[in-house]
Amino acid sequence: MSPRATRRAPRATGRPGRGQALRETANRSASAVGEALVIVREYTGPLVDRLREFGGRFGEPASRIVSPLGFVVAGTAVLLWILGVVFGWQEAVVGAFMAGLLLVIALLFILGRTDYDVGLDLNRTRVAVGDRAVGAMVVENVSKRPSFGATMELPVGAAVAAFRVPRLQPAAKHEDLFTIPTRRRAVLAVGPVRSVRQDPFGLLRRQVRWTDEYDLFVHPRTTALDGSSAGFIRDLEGMPTSDLSNSDVSFHALRDYEAGDDRRHIHWKSSARTGQLMVRQFEETRRSHLAIALSLNLAEYGEEAGDDFELAVSAAASIGLQAAAEQRKLSVMTQAGPVRTDTGRNMMDGLTRVEGRPSMRRSVVDVVRTTADTVPNASVVFILTGAGTTARQLRAASMHVPLGVRAIAIRCGHGLTAARANIGDLTVLTLGNLDELGLMLRRAAA
To answer: Per the record, where are the segments of Basic residues compositional bias (predicted)?
Structure first.
């Protein structure tokens, strides 16, 4: 072995030893840190859980009573007291005393008990857009002592109405009437009525709930069709089709008996005359079933997408109410799913809840496809969409309507001129005003 190789050998064997020592030291340090964290968690975990439970039990009620300004005043009082005690600042002690005095005075304003019997009465819980929703709130002092004046708050949707209740003698009542604006279709949460006590400084606020919450349905505006729906389904109710059936009401012919046929349909006179069993055969009759496909995709409506969508909802509601009045079977489908149509009220409630969506991948073609799959036996399909829907989209949507089913598309847009056109077997109506719906449907039925 050469001397040069002998000198390099210790260096080659020494480097791995130092690296291994460093790795072992790092592993020991990591293990020590991990053990320390486990010990800290064991000791501090219960404390953190208790603090969290304490905050949930007392913090939330305190946040409902103490306003943000009240928390600031309380924190300032504590801070000034600490500074005054630590540094001997008399001014800080005086400031802490004044802040504490403000909190005590505010506390006196919200203390006390008031016994009220509060009644909230809505004249109607379902109104149409533009109708007046009138209600009354009656407050009675049921205690044996005169009550101080109080403020009653009534939440209506996102707004809050405040009513001032004067000083009431025992068994005395105070009534306030109110009107809820119904400019747009919505489901408004009315109530609960709550009494509010608050100090003049706005530091503390105490609320007491007196009534339950009610839902006020502002239904879409509708128009009377004057029986015009009979124009486009008058020839569908009970009319026979070319499909044959073994059980129906429209007699077609007699045929030889086959195994599995219902014996109740055997024509015994013909069987006795021919010497073999003969059964009746019928033609299937079609029962009118209206299907409404309402598109929620706001991209298919005009520049004023919100107003045009409301027009489409109103048109769907008008057709649905007419079908319910004539006791027709009805189905309403949207991209968000079906709308309950077992009663006219449920249908209107469901259409009140639907909302247009500005960014939606599913178009009118998808909702028509879903409608055709869900209601395969429909006799008439109404397609409610906006003026932004192209003829190509309408043609693609009509391709999903089964053969023999009449399809009518209604393009809704405020200010548009009423018109009628045909795209193949699809009748396309342009609706610019809800009052023109009846006339347009009569033209479509002609």
So the answer is: 1-10
